[in-house]
Amino acid sequence: MKRFIIYSAVLFGCLPVFSQEKTATGFTGQYRVDYYPDRKMNIYQEGKALMLEVVGQGKIELLPVNKNTFSLKNIPHNNIEFIPDSLGNTKQFIWLRPPTKANWIRIPEESSPDNTGQSLQNPDPYSGRYSLKGGRYLNILVKKDSNNLTFQIPGETVLTLIPLGKNSFIFRKGAFSSTYEFIADKEGRITRIISTDEGPVECSKMAEISNNSISSKHSFVKRSGFTEADTLMGTLSPLRTCYDVQFYDLDVQIDPDVRSILGSTIIRFKAVNDFKIFQIDLSDKMNIEKIVFQNKNISFTRKFDAVFIQFPDELKQGSTGEIRVFYSGKLPVPDISSLAGGFISIQDRNGKAWIESVVQGSGASIWWPCKDHLSDKPDSMQVNVTIPQGLTVISNGRFLGKTELPGKLQRFQWFVGYPINNYNVVLYIGDYIHFADEYAERTDRFALNYYCLSYNEEKARKFVQKVKPLLRFYQKLFGPYPFPRDGFALVESPYGMEHQSAVSAGAYTNPSNDHALDTLELQRMLWHESAHEWWGNSVTCSDMADFWIHESFASYAEILCYENFYGREAAQKYINENIPENKEPIIGFYGVNDFHMGDMYSKGGRMIATLREAIYNDSLFFSLLKGIQSRFKYQSVSTEDIIHYFNEGTRTDYTYLFDQYLRFAAIPKLIISKEKAGKDLDLRYKWKADVPDFRLPVKLLRGDSEPLLIYPTTEWKTLHLTNTKPSALIVDNTHSYFDIQAE
Ligand SMILES: [Zn+2]
């Protein structure tokens, strides 16, 4: 997956929450932004916490500052202040925050051939479409409308901009303002906008609200403060290693209107050793009606999200059994501040429900009972979902059929014929249409299924033409597609995700209107999420701390795709634009389900590019990528497994390389000094790195001569080069990721 983007409350960018000890019923309700009525927000109570939800996007907890003021959890310097009227009723709140900047990149017309219907009459230097950097769902249209310049998320409120200065405009409403500074390139063409929102955002209550939803007791974004709940979720205790899951049969009924879920899961298992108690996982916000074993109810206890099941007799090693957990609850709302997942739930252009479960990190147990640990995948799985007629459910694997049920209901059955990790199990619910194709090359055949919203067929049919060339490319790089019996499906959805054999690159048009999203960005999402079929879905990490195995290889696959489909320059441009933060190690804490996104994407991708340079033998490097896929197919692996595999395959110890990039925040720095000795040159060099034996080879470019490889260590070395000018010698870090410091 990629990061959650909040294109929130206001035009973009931020979102908060509040919680308090006393009940805050006076504050709860449905609100909307006064200057931007398309942006709706809910304030509601969740246990003792007060929550702010940006409708369709997610929620955040509000922490009390004083009687009427709340801060946003994990989002500093943002306050929500409720304004009571003379009768003491709250009809309004003000969101106070520091000036918020956003960067909008102009979308070149030629890069988005699908984006029709926005032909710009009276073009002026500013008119055009721009997309929010880092938030591909947000396209804006700048237009000259009679004499005014306007700014609009297509289909939503039009804001009129007043000139402020050269290339600078402003929108004002009360004390709130939004400044748009248009930036020109050397030729004077406007290429981007820097917008700055300033001042309080006023929101008015539209309606009261009923309470629902969940809160998180996990510490996804507070890496120093893990809780017992995190340990129960993340640790492979004897209560979890004592059994191996073989099969899940999920059977639930969902009512999208009230966000309810009701049903059961059968968990079939094999005893790894003798035991009488084992642990499964299910969010403590879900009710468990009963758990049935051999036709009898059995007893269980719960602690946070762990459920401890007490069997009447000891189960013997090697024996198999199954339990059925009957449960009910509310579909969880994604939590923005803690990165906890849930059901993204929006409306399509026709007002129909459009829902997607996205639970990477928080785990599947926030909505169905399972052994929620990455180390244990079932061998196969069945997913049965009952919903009201008029909508379609898409899940993983093969579609087995649909049954009409009394009460205007229908039941969809899906079957996954391969091991699947829990967070990949998905429900997409919406007004979908389907069309099919086949991937067929020599003996290599599997089904291709495409699902899109009913009104996006034309766009989908065009976009899916990218799928076959991509799968061909990935099979060449990584080996056979891992799930041929299930086929490969591409599903339009609110949020791009790697859901196994039902991948999504996101939405094809802005969900609130007919406006197409940037094609190149959609394509990049397709590259990324599809690469996960190999990296993440087939080969899975065994602890959340090692999640880089999913994201770093998928990010590296993006670079390879740029190179393959658009050339080296495009790949380099993409690398240069995605600068890692280098603030914390990529590897997280083990045993606590430590989900943090951080640098595992761009830095992880560049680490693999660096490894390729270090190996300096492309046929070996790519045969090793394929080798990982065949050696660890359908399995869960650790960082050590991957490092060991590369070391063995190259007969070289690259532990130093993985350790530096994965276990430390900083990247290595090559310190060099060039000293002239007559016509000759003495080059002195050494590594500055956290790993004491860091020894990445480095390539030197010398004009037209062959590149020269040097082997720096953390001790100074000297290379004497005859007849060489200092300027003629360049350290090449185009493909390897390190800094250079000249002494
Ligand atoms: Zn990903």
CATH superfamily of the domain at 543-663: Neutral Protease Domain 2
Ends distance: 41 Å
Q: How are the strands of the biggest sheet laid out side by side?
A: 1-2-3-4-5-6-7-16
* CATH fold label of the domain at 543-663: Neutral Protease, domain 2
Radius of gyration: 27 Å
Tell me the CATH architecture of the domain at 543-663.
Answer: Orthogonal Bundle
Q: Could you tell me which ligands this complex binds, including any ions or cofactors?
A: zinc ion
- Overall outline: globular
**Structural class designation:** alpha+beta
Beta percentage is: 35-45%
Q: How many β-strand stretches?
A: 44
Question: Percent range for helical residues?
Answer: 10-25%
CATH class of the domain at 543-663: Mainly Alpha
What is the mean predicted local confidence, pLDDT? Answer: 88
What does the model show?
With 743 residues, the protein is of the alpha+beta class. 16% of the residues lie in helices and 40% in strands. The protein contains 11 helices and 44 strands. The strands form 9 sheets. An 8-stranded antiparallel barrel has the order 1-2-3-4-5-6-7-16. The protein has an 8-stranded antiparallel barrel with strand order 8-9-10-11-12-13-14-15. An 8-stranded mixed β-sheet has the order 21-20-24-18-17-27-30-29. Strand 29 and strand 30 (409-416) form a beta hairpin. Residues 2-24, 110-122 and 211-216 have low confidence and may be disordered. The structure holds zinc ion. Residues 1, 498, 528, 532, 551, 554 line the site of zinc ion.
